[in-house]
Input
Amino acid sequence: MEYDDNKERYINPFTDFGFKKLFGTEMNKELLISFLNALLEGKEEIDDIKYRNTEHLGAGVKDRKAVFDVYCENASGERFIVEMQKAEQDYFKDRSVFYSTFPIQEQAKRGEWDFQLKSVYTVGILDFVFPNNEYSPGCYHHTVKLVDVEDKHVFYNKLTYVYLEMPKFTKKEDELATMFDKWLYVLRNLSRLLERPAALQERVFTRLFEQAEIAKLTKEERDEYAESVKVYRDLINVVNTAERKGKKQGFAEGRAEGLAEGIEKGLAEGIEKGLAEGIEKGLAEGRYAANVDNARKMKADGLPPELVAKYSGLSIDEVEQL
Output
């Protein structure tokens, strides 16, 4: 498939190809180091990293495996999982915790071992916001640790989950005050830019814009990127369609339920309750139907079951039964 670069100058980092091109290759590891240092905001300074195998199997043959977008280790042995998550999934938090168990378990040593562990960081760059208004509109950077609920002190500081709700990051170029701001800005806007912004003059961004320019990709890279863009756009279309269908279905069901309850409890109260419950039910059913439809499309495009499950939100068992 040929890619028309007349519409975009720089690759979209929310695609599989774009994300791994910028952050998942040895030649561009300085980009990942800079991003992680900005994310940690001076809590430590990473000078070097080494990439680790992104595919992890459980202890047994039948155990479920995990495939990370980017997995690396710094010089002191701390592990970093960095994931680009394109669409909301059921049990997304469960999945993050499950993934974090692999770099924990692989630190176990044969023979005598005192259970001392190196820190593990799971970083989720989210192309969606958490559902049900879990966080305020302006809160896009979330750092999660094990905390004592009584006095709120950090009970265990070697396990950290960082989530970035990218749609909530709305700062303009003249509002970028820190390297962290600049990294979020470039991730959020890269594919829409026609030239390098004046605010991004650090050397690391020179490297990023050189590597992100579509015209400089090889023929094979352009073809791979085109397929990655197709998968990304199909996923976005499916999610948007599911939301529209869910709202329509939810409105219809909610109206019917609301009218029925309104007879007994009052028309106004019944409609309000019925609409809310119906919309919630319709959205859930619509999302699942869209996930199934999207999974079928990705299977038809030849994606392996693990990736289909990852991007559709279905389990591998459900994908294999399609």
Summary: The first strand starts at residue 49 and ends at 51. The longest helix spans residues 219-265. The beta strands are 49-51, 55-56, 66-67, 70-74, 79-85, 120-126, 141-147, 154-165. The two ends are 26 Å apart (CA to CA).
